[in-house]
Specification:
alpha/beta, Rossmann fold, two-stranded antiparallel sheet
């Protein structure tokens, strides 16, 4: 099986959800974190082959590396992971540069002419970054269940082969495929959808929704 070993950078809900999903689908998974003790219960309860280490451990372990941390922490985590440990690899970027400093729903720390996806690719010039999973709830990332038809997952990146590998992962996870919205700079627009996604969820009292393109 290709892309058998998965290194996940992060220890939050997204990292744990994707870690469980990859393990469920037969992958070997290593989560990287500053505080491995936080994941002791998770690793004991998760079925499959999972382990925990440092960010650099997870980055060097994975055939595929998943960045699953808060957007504000992404660049610091990548420095700890080491760009040399992901050279030539597919990196799935799930991050959003959300600003939680206000009292209401989050906005963006930056956008319009910049994005987290572009910053991740710039920090990892020898890796193939694909923005993915950033526009849905962690509860829907693997084996999604919607009241209506499941839409393709919107992704973007600069490398066609990396996007094809990403689509294969999505299909295995129960998505009908990927909707390629262009190069990595399209992260600006995928990330900008997320504050809207939050507001729609609050109005509809659901966090299991996703954006779809009607034709």
């Amino acid at each position: 099986m290709t892309d058998q070993r998965i290194g996940i950078l992060g220890s939050g809900d997204v990292a744990k959800a994707l870690g469980r999903g990859f393990a469920k689908h037969g992958r070997e998974v290593k989560l990287g974190t500053r505080t491995p003790e936080k994941l002791r219960t998770w690793s004991a309860e998760t079925e499959g082959t999972v382990s925990v280490g440092s960010f650099s451990d997870a980055a060097s372990f994975g055939d595929v590396v998943v960045l699953a941390v808060l957007g504000a922490a992404a660049e610091d985590v990548l420095e700890l992971a080491g760009s040399e440990n992901v050279a030539g690899k597919l990196v799935l970027d799930t991050t959003n540069p959300l600003d939680f400093s206000g009292d209401g729903p989050p906005g963006l720390l930056f956008g319009g002419t910049d994005s987290s996806g572009e910053r991740v690719q710039a920090a990892l010039p020898d890796a193939h970054v694909v923005k993915c999973f950033n526009t849905v709830s962690n509860a829907q990332m693997v084996d999604p269940e919607f009241e209506g038809e499941t839409p393709p997952m919107m992704i973007c990146g600069d490398d066609d082969d990396a996007k094809a590998r990403t689509e294969a992962i999505l299909t295995e996870f129960g998505w009908p495929g990927a909707l390629d919205v262009g190069p990595i700079e399209s992260s600006r627009y995928l990330e900008a959808l997320v504050p809207l996604w939050v507001r729609i969820g609050a109005n509809l009292d659901t966090w299991k929704h996703a954006f779809a393109v009607a034709r």
